[in-house]
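Fold it.
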Amino acid sequence: MTETLKAQLTDDMKSSMKGGNKERLGVIRLILAAIKQIEVDERIELDDSRVITVLDKMAKQRRESISQFSNAGRDDLTAIEEAELVIIQEYLPAALSESEINDLVEQSINATGAETIKDMGKVMGMLKPQLQGRADMGQVSQLIKSRLSG
């Protein structure tokens, strides 16, 4: 059986401790803390898909922070967030290309019979499990809006 994402994170945390890689260790601890928080709050054990959702949310937070810090001219903070984002993305599935995303959006619009912006929820509902952690859902949402309103 393949190792779960959570087990891989724990193993990587141990090897980062042994190797003295403090930056990587800190980010992995942040990820594991976020996972543990949800597990404690909801009294469940997270599976890989929920762990990917946590990682995706953390990556999105880093991208927003990078944008805000660079607009404020805080290159020191931007560099920290970018380094954290690189480590978080290592655990996310490979990102989809723009053409792959366009194809999936087109297929979902056709499959759901969506014609207007009111049908956007159906399309997003179909796409979210396929794209979670592999695409910026905000951009996907914009793409669907443009297709359905145009």
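The chain has two domains: 5-90, 98-149.
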